[in-house]
Sequence to fold (380 residues):
Amino acid sequence: MEFGWTTEQLQYRARVRAALDELLPDDWDETYVPESYASDLQIEFSREFCAKLAERGLLVPHWPVEYGGCGQPDWDHFILGEEMKAAGEPRGPQYMNVNWIGPTLMRYGTEAQKAQHVKGIASGKVIWCQGFSEPNAGTDLAALRTRAERTGDHYVINGSKIWTSYARKADWCFLLARTGASRKDISIFLLPMDSPGISVTSFPGLIKPGHLNEVFFTDVEVPVENRVGEEGQAWEIITHALSYERVGVPRYHVGLEALKLAIEQLKAEGRYDDPIIRSRAGMIAAKFEGARMLTYLVVDQRVKRMPPSTDANLSRIWSLDAVAELMNFLVEFVPDCLAGGDKLLEDYYRINIPAGVTGGTNEIQLDLVAQRGLGLPRGA
Fold:
């Protein structure tokens, strides 16, 4: 199969690149990219940058006009995501708002929630964090322990979340909490991060500062109208949301750029003639291209309004396999670049350390493919 972009899509990509050239500061690569999406610097920059994208119709071009979008095809949004990722993702944490929180609220939110939050996201000025993982549950959502007990017209939330990127500066949290006794009695709440009873503690790790936070909820009250959908409906809603999230980050696009930088370094050192290095690089490039085609398949299904399938899980699995191969390649053949020798390669490596965990581990993805795609029974 030969995949090719239309003339209109190529023109749109050029428009996005022109906007990046105009809006990014001259020291973007040197000052901002080495920080992280979760740094104070990039989070605050994202409010300014995304607001300017919104003014140009480039933040949520694929959203309906009534929600602040331009009604353009999903492909345009995906082209936008590729270019943003290749540029170092200047949308910062707001890639998440645009990719799946907004679309999820369009489908499952009340009219009041849509008016407040979907349009807020479309303005480019609102920061969200994702309250999913927990200390004793990891990415196994069925094992979460944070509880929301209903008392009259509000819920009282107690518990904690971990690995909550952007939590220190976020305005809102898309929170999962248990509302019943069974494993799947889980509900979703839209929680203001300045609510009394919320505290955030950051901790260090291998990845860049700002991503690793633990959030504690002590008798936090949230109105019933802040619940998304019905009680216990979280599984249906999250399945829909994650079908967007799993293809929302074009890892193949920036991965190929990182591979190109590594090859240029190897050529400069006179080492790229080594057949082992060349074959490894070729294998990694092929894997990223395979990930690209799988991702395009999922986007095409979305454009055609087909129901979600395990193709999104397969796309993520294949993409992360390519990322892991590239990270091993960098450590083996250009380790000096990861220790201050090349800021962009070091940044790529550190950002992707948790790639196999965020959004659900590969083991979870494989289980989903086995059960939902192949119809295999759940293991004991």
